[in-house]
Amino acid sequence: MDATTVLADITGSIATVGYGLAAIGPAIGVGIVVGKTIEGVARQPELAGRLQVLMWIGIAFTEALAFIGIATAFIFGF
Description:
The chain is mostly helical. It contains two helices and no strands.
């Protein structure tokens, strides 16, 4: 086994672990967005519909980070 084979094997593992770490950020972000929406509805129930729309927009932007992470993993040789 030469150094090139070992390097290729390690690179593949790093890409997989890298995407796993990249998915942690959006997961925490979605949790914060949903939690703050629930908190806002509890404080002002009359704004529930408006806050829910904003929550879905926030989740969409946050999940875009996960899509960027998986695209990056494929670009750099997942």
